[in-house]
Amino acid sequence: MSKLPAPESLTQKLSRRAVEIAQATGPRKTGKALQSITPAWQKGIVGINVPPEAAYLSEINDGYPAKILSNLANRNIPFRKADGTLAFRTANPNKIGTIPIITRAAANGQILSGGPHWVISAQPGTRFLEKSIYRSVDEWERSVTPEQMLDILMQSDLQEGLERLMRG
């Protein structure tokens, strides 16, 4: 059985609702990037458009691989210690991306060092944009009435056949 593409009026409604859901549930720094996303639709397509200035939302949605911070070589990197004081480290170009020899404390055997130096670990995607689209479609599926479904089918390519069927 072939699938029938949803009419543009329905995909527009679903896309707008998906954006509302994404704006309510998405990760936010200030919320400005989430407010800049817009609905995108065509006949049979429901989507969300993420503008270039909010590209980090796509990265959070899709996830990203581990990144070696090679651009930090020979730079002073400020960081705040647990007591609140500011300290500086220099990224040695020979150590960037390397895995150190693991050392353990003599007293309790606790690992003192490990993991690659100057690397951001990989993050899996949250898929919050896709979840928003699926949720908007699911909400619509649960709320649609038979009359509304018939109206949608009358807007589709099946209109002619349905009219013949209804006339008898």
Question: What key attributes describe this structure?
Answer:
two-stranded antiparallel sheet, 168 residues, 2 domains, 8 strands, alpha+beta, elongated
**Order of adjacent strands in the largest pleated sheet:** 1-2
Radius of gyration: 26 Å
Q: Could you tell me the mean pLDDT? A: 85
Give the overall silhouette.
Answer: elongated
Strand content: 15-25%
Sheet with the most strands, sense and barrel status: 2 strands, antiparallel
Kindly state the percentage of residues in helix: 25-40%
Number of strands: 8
Reading the helices and strands in chain order gives HHEEHEEEEEEHHH
From the N-terminal CA to the C-terminal CA, the straight-line distance is 24 Å
**Count of individual helical segments:** 6
Poorly predicted runs of 5 or more residues: none
Number of domains: 2
Can you walk through the features of this model?
- With 168 residues, the protein is α+β, with helices and mostly antiparallel strands.
- The protein folds into two domains: 8-63 and 125-162, no CATH class; 66-121, no CATH class.
- It is built from six helices and eight strands; from the N terminus they run H-H-E-E-H-E-E-E-E-E-E-H-H-H.
- The protein has helices at 8-25, 32-36, 55-62, 128-143, 146-154, 159-167; strands at residues 38-42, 45-49, 63-64, 67-68, 76-80, 86-90, 119-120, 123-124.
- The strands form four sheets. Strands 1-2 form a two-stranded antiparallel sheet. Strands 3-8 form a two-stranded antiparallel ribbon. A two-stranded antiparallel ribbon has the order 4-7.
- A hairpin with a 5-residue loop joins strand 5 (76-80) and strand 6.
- Helix 1 (8-25) crosses helix 4.
- The protein is elongated.
- The two termini are 24 Å apart.
- The mean pLDDT is 85.
